[in-house]
Amino acid sequence: NAGVTQTPKFRVLKTGQSMTLLCAQDMNHEYMYWYRQDPGMGLRLIHYSVGEGTTAKGEVPDGYNVSRLKKQNFLLGLESAAPSQTSVYFCASGGSQETQYFGPGTRLLVL
Amino acid sequence: AQSVTQPDIHITVSEGASLELRCNYSYGATPYLFWYVQSPGQGLQLLLKYFSGDTLVQGIKGFEAEFKRSQSSFNLRKPSVHWSDAAEYFCVLFNYGGSQGNLIFGKGTKLSVKP
Questions:
Q1: CB pair distance less than 8 Å for A45 and B108
Q2: What is the model's pLDDT at position B97?
Q3: Does A27 contact chain B (CB < 8 Å)?
Q4: pLDDT in tens, A26-39
Q5: Cα B62 to chain center, whole Å?
């Protein structure tokens, strides 16, 4: 039982490049979330999903897209990376909305 | 507006000393509250949660928190700190009244432990 896993752990992009971050959970959770963490800001919600095939915008969705084609996976895409998207990205999942379990994070540097 | 405030950005305590991390919230109804811990370079681990009932909640690693409605507070405590407790601690509010049903994070308190 791995819980919530994230791929990759670290990535460096050039401005304008695209990439996809993968989140996988093996707890059969309905709810999945993507957050970004910036120094002194806590975590901010980017997008979330309340079930397979559904997605919704969070607090800071601009520049990101998501997909939830399978219940266990939640993908976060950056179509054209910008330096402002340099951050640590956390995925979380939960069997209910309130209690969320977090992955180890992906560090992204956009040059 | 819903919000969480952690007044202390950084706290240093000696190993074996007691610890209290402060958290204040603003919410129009009975809040769902959490404390998460983030060790350096790691993800967030749930320490404890309060939904209702007993206002003193016990968590993992010897932590406890007390919900005080009159003070809009949910402070985290530990009677004796260990060096491995050095980490960043986040107080979190679940905004179940909003359309997003999302977690609202405080900005965190970084705990350093002196030997």
A1: no
A2: 64
A3: no
A4: 999 999 999 999 98
A5: 13
